[in-house]
């Protein structure tokens, strides 16, 4: 175990840690060499065929209703159009030759520790801070976002 670490026994520590972390081989540093040593910033040029989206009143009402954000003035609509334009740039990025990301969750095993209570039961102290509690066991949360009135054809649910 790591808790039995002897400062003079480096090989034992490396053996224990190798179960938790896969160390790169000294002669195989290809993966590390592909990572830039400094931040790389590139601006994406605007596409010539991009048109600023025209947002109809009906579409604005639908976006307001589903996002629970009010675009009540020209500044709000302009900000929404700018956000759409910014997000549309992702389609112009050249991804040829770019490999998909690698995730440790797909192939590696996460070693978990057992949960141990360290400070005891503090339920009463925590529930005393709640505005409303149910059966003195649970917090009662306020209701979530309430959607605006649904009008128009775009927001119909079945």
Automatic annotation (TrEMBL):
Enzyme Commission number(s) from the entry: 6.3.5.-
InterPro entries: Asp/Glu-ADT_sf_sub_c (IPR036113), GatC (IPR003837)
Keyword ATP-binding attached: yes
Alphabetical keyword list: ATP-binding, Ligase, Mitochondrion, Nucleotide-binding, Protein biosynthesis
Broad class of enzyme this protein falls into: ligase
GO cellular component, as recorded: glutamyl-tRNA(Gln) amidotransferase complex; mitochondrion
One Pfam family recorded for the sequence: GatC
SUPFAM superfamilies in the record: Glu-tRNAGln amidotransferase C subunit (SSF141000)
Record GO terms (molecular function): ATP binding; glutaminyl-tRNA synthase (glutamine-hydrolyzing) activity
Catalytic activity: L-glutamyl-tRNA(Gln) + L-glutamine + ATP + H2O = L-glutaminyl-tRNA(Gln) + L-glutamate + ADP + phosphate + H(+)
Record family assignment: Belongs to the GatC family.
Assembly and interaction partners: Subunit of the heterotrimeric GatCAB amidotransferase (AdT) complex, composed of A, B and C subunits.
Protein name per UniProt: Glutamyl-tRNA(Gln) amidotransferase subunit C, mitochondrial
UniProt source species: Bugula neritina (Brown bryozoan)
């Amino acid at each position: 175990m790591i808790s039995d670490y002897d400062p003079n026994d480096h090989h034992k520590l490396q053996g224990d840690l190798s179960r938790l972390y896969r160390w790169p081989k000294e002669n195989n540093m290809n993966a590390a060499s592909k990572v830039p040593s400094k931040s790389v910033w590139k601006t994406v040029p605007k596409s010539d065929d991009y048109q600023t989206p025209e947002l109809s009143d009906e579409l604005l009402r639908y976006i307001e209703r589903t996002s629970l954000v009010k675009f009540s003035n020209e500044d709000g609509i302009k900000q929404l159009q700018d956000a759409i334009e910014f997000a549309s740039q992702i389609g112009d990025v050249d991804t040829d030759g770019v490999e998909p990301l690698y995730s440790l969750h797909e192939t590696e095993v996460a070693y978990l520790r057992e949960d141990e209570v360290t400070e005891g039961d503090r339920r009463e102290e925590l529930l005393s801070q709640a505005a409303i509690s149910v059966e003195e066991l649970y917090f009662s949360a306020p209701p979530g976002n309430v959607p605006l009135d649904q009008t128009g054809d775009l927001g119909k649910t079945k």
